[in-house]
């Protein structure tokens, strides 16, 4: 219940600070993207682009504190978070392009290999067809043993 109340009303819900050791949302060790509910570490968790755990502090109560304080004045956290998200997007776009190039190269080599195997299968099928026709002709002519 305490966590839910912290999340909804912030750390100062009782009108007093609940401990001097508790960080404030303005501290440098608090994740500003988390305060805006857009931390890439949380968003990309359990995906192929998982970044691991965020090195900064995440606390829902601090998010509530930030939301209350942002009603009174601008803190500029949106700009910082936007820059961080743009950097992550640029990195993901770069990785995607590298993967696309690698995939195109792999597909070219695979398609050449597949074409060669398909040609070989076609030759075998043609050879089998000729042998079957020859065996049928021999059978019709009365040479059952040879067919």
UniProtKB/TrEMBL annotation:
Top-rank taxon, per record: Eukaryota
Residue ranges of coiled coil: none
One MF term in the entry's GO annotations: mRNA binding
GO cellular component: U1 snRNP
A GO biological process held by the record: mRNA splice site recognition
Similarity field: Belongs to the Luc7 family.
Protein name: Putative RNA-binding protein Luc7-like 2
Source organism: Stichopus japonicus
């Amino acid at each position: 219940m305490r966590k839910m109340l912290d999340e909804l009303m912030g750390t100062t819900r009782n009108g007093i600070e609940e401990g001097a050791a508790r960080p404030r949302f303005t501290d440098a060790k608090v994740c500003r993207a988390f305060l805006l509910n857009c931390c890439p570490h949380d968003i990309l968790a359990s995906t192929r682009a998982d970044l691991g755990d965020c090195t900064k502090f995440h606390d829902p109560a601090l998010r509530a504190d930030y939301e209350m304080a942002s009603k009174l004045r601008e803190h500029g956290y949106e700009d910082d978070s936007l820059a961080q998200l743009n950097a992550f997007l640029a990195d993901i776009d770069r990785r995607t392009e590298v993967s696309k190039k690698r995939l195109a190269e792999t597909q070219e080599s695979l398609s050449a290999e597949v074409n060669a195997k398909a040609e070989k299968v076609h030759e075998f099928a043609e050879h089998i067809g000729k042998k079957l026709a020859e065996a049928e002709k021999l059978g019709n002519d009365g040479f059952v043993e040879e067919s």
